[in-house]
């Protein structure tokens, strides 16, 4: 048990920041205490005074960084602000855990990553809490072991994000290009985009059809259909939306020697082939194939099926990331997710948007970052509410 103590500063006392403040003050994060809170909203100062009376409050996050009250911060603020606040904090020697997504456009994330890399003495992490979910950590180990062979195809349908119009009407920044930088891809689905490329590898190209304000009175995407190219003939598809009240969460990954199906991020079915699929294709007679599909052959001679059920514990994944963040600062424990990895999901999401805007396939290796930013700024200007970005 660590005797060291990281004093955490929370930038933004909203729902997420409030949750983090609660678990830290409850003593659920080993090696971490609540050092200070910063928020520009005067109403949050009253909330902080009532809930955390002994914790310093600042209406300017830079003043908090300079106060000497904190050793580390977490940035629970709008997406556009993640990179700037992270750079400012790291520049002052403050360890930083940035919320997902890492940013809205890749140029700002690249700047953040480069700055963090130049300050290796300061911890830079990102809140990819789903990387602590046993459903996916065990899958990652299985895939990386090579037991199932090479990936052939993958698909993820993740439509469990139903949001009524009232959700968007709560705040003027929601689902706007200038205030949020996108819709379902930057708000609801970043965890799946990160997990997808974490498990399967980073796609090299993407072609996408997006619907903007399709079923909601918003400017940004509320339905996404994307096809990605991983190279070497390996493809994948990603479908998400915010208008399916029933919702589906199904991830499939087909490999040379098996298949994995994940339903509702809880049930995992693993199919293992006795031999490589191409070998089976070449050696099985048509009579044997008919016997297999008529149920006249013991299927275990061809494949086995393993099913696993997992239970989710709300909030535990965030606690695990915060605990890991503190352990990295205190003892050098490897990070669950290095902050630099956040760019992968941002590039994939913005690539999908750019593909839909231009009608062409987007190269994610030689990514046209400046073109994306120009297209984004054009939409921000058309909204006429928020400043353009650089």
Description:
- With 390 residues, this protein is α/β, with parallel strands linked by helices.
- The protein folds into 2 domains: 148 residues, NAD(P)-binding Rossmann-like Domain (Rossmann fold), CATH 3.40.50; 219 residues, Dihydrodipicolinate Reductase, domain 2.
- It is built from 13 helices and 15 strands.
- The chain has a 9-stranded mixed β-sheet with strand order 14-13-12-11-7-10-9-8-15. Strands 3-2-1-4-5-6 form a 6-stranded parallel β-sheet, sandwiched between helices.
- Helix 6 packs parallel to helix 8.
- The longest helix has 17 residues.
- It is globular.
- The two termini are 45 Å apart.
- The mean pLDDT is 96.
Largest sheet: 9 strands, mixed
Distance between the termini: 45 Å
Outline: globular
Number of strands: 15
Count of discrete structural domains? 2
Query: In terms of per-residue confidence, which ranges show pLDDT below 50 for 5 or more consecutive residues?
Result: none
User: Which fold name is given in CATH as the topology of the largest domain?
Assistant: Dihydrodipicolinate Reductase, domain 2
The second-level CATH architecture of the largest domain is 2-Layer Sandwich
The helical percent reads 25-40%
Please list the strands of the largest sheet in the order they lie side by side: 14-13-12-11-7-10-9-8-15
What is the number of helical segments per DSSP (H or I, 4+ residues)? 13
Using the CA coordinates, give the radius of gyration. 23 Å
CATH level-four homologous superfamily name of the largest domain: Dihydrodipicolinate Reductase, domain 2
Q: What is the H/E string?
A: EHEHEHEHEHEHEHHEEEEEEHHEHHEH
Summarize model confidence as the mean pLDDT. 96
- For the record, the CATH class of the largest domain is Alpha Beta
Keywords: NAD
Protein name: Dehydrogenase
GO molecular function: nucleotide binding
């Amino acid at each position: 048990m660590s005797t060291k103590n990281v004093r955490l500063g929370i930038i933004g006392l909203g729902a997420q920041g409030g949750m983090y403040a609660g678990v830290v003050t409850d003593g659920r994060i080993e090696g971490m205490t609540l050092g200070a809170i910063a928020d520009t909203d005067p109403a949050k100062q009253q909330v902080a005074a009532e809930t955390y009376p002994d914790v310093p409050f600042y209406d300017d996050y830079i003043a908090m960084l300079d106060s000497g009250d904190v050793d580390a911060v977490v940035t629970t603020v709008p997406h556009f602000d993640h990179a700037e606040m992270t750079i400012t904090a790291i520049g002052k020697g403050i360890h930083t855990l940035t919320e997902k997504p890492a940013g809205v456009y890749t140029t700002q994330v690249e700047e953040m990553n480069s700055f963090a890399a130049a300050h290796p003495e300061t911890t830079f992490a990102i809140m990819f809490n789903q990387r602590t979910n046993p459903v996916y950590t065990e899958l990652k180990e299985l895939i990386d072991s090579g037991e199932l062979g090479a990936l052939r195809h993958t698909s993820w349908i993740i439509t469990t994000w139903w949001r009524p119009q009232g959700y968007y009407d709560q705040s003027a920044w929601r689902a706007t290009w200038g205030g949020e930088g996108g819709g379902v891809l930057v708000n609801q689905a970043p965890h799946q985009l990160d997990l997808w490329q974490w498990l399967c590898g980073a796609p090299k190209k993407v072609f996408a059809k997006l619907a903007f304000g399709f079923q909601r009175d918003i400017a940004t995407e509320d339905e996404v259909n994307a096809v990605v190219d991983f190279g070497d003939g390996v493809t994948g598809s990603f479908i998400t939306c915010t208008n399916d009240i029933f919702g589906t969460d199904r991830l499939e990954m087909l490999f040379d020697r098996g298949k994995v199906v994940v339903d509702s991020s809880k049930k995992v079915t693993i199919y293992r082939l006795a031999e490589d699929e191409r070998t089976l294709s070449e050696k099985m007679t048509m009579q044997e194939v008919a016997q297999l599909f008529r149920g006249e052959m013991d299927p275990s001679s061809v494949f086995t099926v393993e099913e696993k059920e997992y239970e989710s514990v709300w909030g535990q994944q965030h606690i695990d990331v915060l605990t890991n963040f503190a352990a990295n600062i205190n003892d050098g424990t490897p990070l669950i997710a290095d902050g630099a990895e956040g760019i992968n999901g941002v590039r994939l999401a913005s690539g999908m948007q750019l593909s839909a805007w231009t009608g062409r396939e987007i190269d994610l290796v030689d990514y046209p970052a400046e073109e994306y930013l120009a297209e984004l700024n054009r939409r921000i200007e058309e909204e006429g509410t928020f400043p353009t970005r650089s």
